[in-house]
Structure formats: structure tokens, C-alpha cells
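cache lookup: miss for this entity combination. No prior model stored, computing from scratch. Input as submitted by user K.M.:
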Amino acid sequence: MTELPRDSVGLVSPETAHFDDPLALACGRTLQAYDLVYETYGTLNAERSNAILICHALSGHHHAAGYHSRDERKPGWWDAHIGPGKSIDTDRFFVVSANNLGGCHGSTGPTSLNPETDEAWGPDFPMMTVSDWVHSQARLADRLGIERFAAVVGGSLGGMQVLQWTLSYPERIANAVVIAATPKLSAQNIAFNEVARQAIRSDPDYFDGHYADHGALPRRGLKLARMVGHITYLSEDAMGSKFGRDLRSEDLNFGYDVEFQVESYLRYQGDTFSTSFDANTYLLMTKALDYFDPAAAHGGDLAAAVAPADCPFLVVSFSTDWRFPPWRSKELVNALIRAGKSVSYANIDSPHGHDAFLLPEPRYQAVFAAFMQRVARDQGLEDRP
Amino acid sequence: MTELPRDSVGLVSPETAHFDDPLALACGRTLQAYDLVYETYGTLNAERSNAILICHALSGHHHAAGYHSRDERKPGWWDAHIGPGKSIDTDRFFVVSANNLGGCHGSTGPTSLNPETDEAWGPDFPMMTVSDWVHSQARLADRLGIERFAAVVGGSLGGMQVLQWTLSYPERIANAVVIAATPKLSAQNIAFNEVARQAIRSDPDYFDGHYADHGALPRRGLKLARMVGHITYLSEDAMGSKFGRDLRSEDLNFGYDVEFQVESYLRYQGDTFSTSFDANTYLLMTKALDYFDPAAAHGGDLAAAVAPADCPFLVVSFSTDWRFPPWRSKELVNALIRAGKSVSYANIDSPHGHDAFLLPEPRYQAVFAAFMQRVARDQGLEDRP
């Protein structure tokens, strides 16, 4: 396209921050040095009071809004909510969005060189946790001169990072927006992740994680992992109304070629992902999800776990999300209330399942925008003209 | 064990019926000759009025009750419901249970010799449908001298066969018991089946289905297929209360070995299945599930589709079954009512998800037994002493 949409942040370029201070990780290992790739949208004000941090989900990255070039087919993954006049209004806020450590989009991760061996880390990259990510994001904030975020915002695994921010750095976060998340995975959530991991790790092209050394890619495994994931991202209804039992061609072929539209969709999604995402990163991200459980250190008492939090929360869930259903968000809401925190909660009626957090559902936008308006007002940011 | 339980049908032996009449299949091909392996429990009465046909599910087989030997660790898969004094009371009923065509437990299937080539059928075995199975079961009934079944009974894919019986042979079925089934798969159901198929078919040891010729077994694929299946058989609650987030050992290992109990369970289930079930059979069974849709030939009007049925139905669903949820059973119930059929429906409150249909849940047993009592009475079978 030559004309970018008027409500877009426009053309953006990622930047890279290099860190030389060793980062001690929850797994007991230390990352001696690392890069974080990130994007920013909008302008940091003189008071440095208008910064928003975006945390990404399992297969996300730093490119949350705008376009890397005029030829880019799609904008960043959260463009529906970040831009001039949008819920996260870049006319008022300065938005920071980084690729997580362990990722495969520019931040140090399994595909990066391990300086100690001068070879790619591959499967030897240390296991990351949500706490580690939050720690590294706080260092990025230091680098950018941001003492305190007006809000930290994220969906799904991103929402877990937001919750961790309120516990690790309560003094550095003024507001928390936790969308389509859960305070910990259920056994069923872990089970789906385990299927994805087994699919990747049992692919003969995985080579115990050293596929790069063999000039191979565990495409079959990643494809299966993504197919399983996709089923859990869509509601049964959304899948039903999108595909139903519609056939690709007029007749059944009584074979294993694609017959139903939903098969075609899943294979396409899986194929695309399998050549664009790093398998070791996928494994690591699913483990970070499994490990997240702030209540564990408090004998399972989530209200005790969230005691350090010191900011208002917005918690949002979606009616047909069966990956992290509304009652999982309510668990968090109830714990926050028991702990005496300020919390707004909205369960959005949406047919789109877990994926709804990415989409421009009007009621979701209204709730999200209203909360962010209040954030702006509290920070003394000028009203939009 | 040396003593078998008193309410068991005891030691049983499978028998094999060979058929030489060609069987024309829905896919357009013809099976020239075939075997059906089956078991029977109880005694066929002189009037031949007390026969019950059991239809099995995706990974089931003919061994539904009793023991093959005193050393057998577990009885047949539906032993909770078939035996002296049980819902399907073998003191009164004569029970027939056959392995479906295309199966891998003795009936003609992909592992059988193709008489035209003198090699195993493998992936060239014709695609089967629920109608084909019902057709072959009717021939087995002919062979056993059973003109009309007092009831045809099945759960899950077995329930679909029961429904098809009422449409293909309304004059040969006096009662239908359809448990934890659906009149057609949803897009999500098909999606899960497709993941299972892709897992098997993308396993390099699958060799386009000719794994036997290569001395190979697509174990990785079958294991993944079974793992995915197992998640859908258990309710989220059942998985949660069975495993929760319990760890195998005391600490996280920050690696990819088993950490959570649920991972261990799924891997074990997958491993066991991957060496005991035939991959081509699994593929074929999932396709039979996908294809089943009696309403399709009636423009989607299920009430029109069930018009030929001419017997009372018992339809049973389970509250936490999310594979074939209660509302899918209600679809069938509503269509039967609209079509003016006699139907009893029970939604059983159970925590066990889809697997509940295999288990001895008391309320389920009570409903099932009451219906079968009525069946016995209608057939003029003597009351139990």
C-alpha cells in the first residue's frame, strides 16, 4: 500500500538495546550479556510520565503496531488497539514493545550466538520465566529513562507478565491491564502445551534442538504444535461459524487430502508458522507459561501472592475463551479484591474465543479506552483535542 | 487372578465369522470377502428375541466384557455395564459385540491380507463409514440367526452406529441406546481429528501407510494422536482434580523431562497406545467420525433424516463431556421429538468428561438399567429371580 491508514502509527523501525550487566535467571543460570529488540510509538513527554509497556504472548514479538514498510501486508499484531485515537492512544502515550528474551525476532534467544562457544545457543539457551522477562524489561525501562510506567499492558502470556510487574516492581507500574490471562495454567492447559512440545521434540528433524547444525528444521513438529494451539485459540462457535462442516470441493474424496475447510485452514496456519518461528523458542515459551504460578510460593494463596501490588488493575476476559476462560480471570479479580486492591473487571461477550484479545471488538475497545483515558488523566496528560 | 468377579460374564473367547458376499461400500469400492471377529455373552433364547448388539468407539474392539484368561489384568472395555445383574444383564440378554471392519483386533482391516495382492492392505484398505459398519453388523446378525435386536447400544462413535441402525434397518432394531454421541462432528471435533491424522501421516515412519513393509511403526505420530485424543476425553475438571499442577518430583527441573504429573500421564497413555494400535486403522476410524452426518442428505434437517427410525430411543449425555457436549445430544433428542419418535433423555451430572460413558457412575447405571429393564419386559423376557 502507498497510503497508510490515518489511525496508524505509520512506519516504524525496531531498535536494539544491548546489555552487558549479567542477568541472574530463575533457573539458576546467568545470562552474561543480551540484546533486546524493541519498538516505540509516540513521544516520551518531558516528565517521562506517559510510558506504556506492551507485553507479548506466546508467539508474539516487538512489532505491535504500525508498518515496517509500505509493502507490509499487515500492521503489527496489536494495531487494533495502539495508534492515534485508539485505546492506547499514541497522541498521548509513549509505547514501548520489546521482543522477549528467548524469542526469535531479534532479542537474544536460542538462534543467537552464545558468546562462550561462538555457536548458536540452540537448546542450551537458559529456560526463561515470566519473572526473568519482567526483570529484563525493567532494565530496558532504565535504559529509556522510564522510572515508572503509566501502565503495563498485555494479553494471554502478556497478561501474566503484567501481573508479575505488579509483584516484582510495584513502585514502577502505575496501572496494570491484564487481558485474557490466568494466574496459573490448568492441568489441561499444561497438557496441550505438552502435546505441542512432544510434537516438536519427537520430530526427527529436531535433533535434540541442534537442528540448525544439521541444516534442518523441525517443520512437522512445529506445524502440529501450531495446529493444536490454534484449536485452543478459537472458540468452538467461532470455528463452527467460520468453517462448519463445509467441504473444500463438492464431494467427499474418501481419502486423506483436505476435505473440510477447517482442515485446510489448520494446515495452512501450521505450515506458515513452521517456517517462520523457531522451535526452541516455542518450547521455551510454553514452559514459561507452565511455570507461571505466583501463588505457589504462598501455599496457593493468590490473595497473599498479590499483596505487594500497589496499583489499579483492569482485568478483561472473553465469554467464549476456553483457553483461559472468564472464571480464571475471576480467580485473579477475587484475589485482588480480597487483598484490598483496586480492580475493574469486564467479561466481554465475544464469539471469538481466546483470539478476541487481538481483535477490535467494540465493547472491548470501549472498556479498554475508558480505562486508558483514566490512566492519562491521572498522569496529567492533556486531553485529546 | 484365579477368582473372577461374581458379576462378570467370566471367561470368554472371540469367534470369527467369514463372509464371502461382496460388501459394497459408501466410498464406491467393494470388499469382496471379510472376517468379523466377535464375542457373545449370555444365551440366545429360543424366540431369538433377547439379542443386544454393542457398537464400539474409536479405539474399541469386540472384547467388551469378561476375561480372555484368568491372567488378564482388566476385563473388557464395557464390563461395568455388561454382565449378570448389570445394566445389560447377561442373565436375560444375549450380547453380541464385534470388532468393526477396518479395525486392528481381528476383523478384516488394514493389517489383513488383501486377497488380490496377497499383501497386507495397509493404506489401500477402503475407507469405511458408519453405514458400512452397520451393513456388516446386519450380516453378522443374519449369520447368528438374529432377525431383530432387542436393542442396539453404543457410546461415542458407537452411538453413531446405533443411530444409523435405526435409519438403515428400522425393522431390525427394537430399541436404540445412544450414549455420549452426536448427530455429526463439529468443526472443532474435525480439527482435533485432523491434528491426529497429521501427526500420524507426517511421522517419517509412516511411509505413506506402508510402514509394515519397512519394518517400521509410526509410534511418534500415534502417540501424539492419542495424547490429543486423551485431552478431549477428560473434562478440564477431571484433569485438574486428577493431576492439578502437581509435580513429579519436589522441584522444577527447568528442562523438558517430565515435571508435571499430567505430562507423565499423557506420555504414558500415548506410549502404550502407540505400540498396541494400528495407525491406518486410527486414520480410518477418525474419518468415519468426520463423515457421519445423516442430516446432510436432507439439507441439514435432522428431523427429516431420522424419519425412518421406528423404535424408542434412550439418549444419554454427560454434563462435563466437552468432546460431544450435552447440547449435541439435545440436538438429536429435539430432532427425534420433532419427528414424532419416542425418546428418553438423561443428562448425567458427572465430573469425568467424555470418558464417563465407560464408567460405573451410579445415576448413569440407574437410567441405563431402567431402560434395559423395560426392553426386557417388552420382549417378554422373564424377570430376574
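stored under new cache key. The first helix of chain B runs from residue 130 to 143.
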